[in-house]
Amino acid sequence: MALWRKVTGTVLVDGKPEPNVKVYFYEKGTTNPIPVYSDEGSTSADNPQLTDASGRYAVYLDVETYPVIRIYLEKDGVDFTEANADLDGVPVPGAVGTVSLGFTDLTDTPSSYSGSGGKVVKVKSTEDGLEFGQVDHGELAGLSDDDHPQYLLADGSRPLSGDLDFQGHLAKVIGKLNFKGATTLTVSSGAVTVSQSYHYVDTEGGASTDDLDTINGGTGGDILYLRAADPSRTVVIKHGTGNIVTPDGNDYSLDSTDKVATLLFDGTNWHLVQRAVPTGAPSAITEGATGSEGSSTSFARADHVHATPATWTPSTHGNEAHSPNYLAVD
Question: Which domains does the chain carry?
Answer without folding.
Answer: 4-104 (no CATH), 183-275 (2.60.120), 280-330 (no CATH)
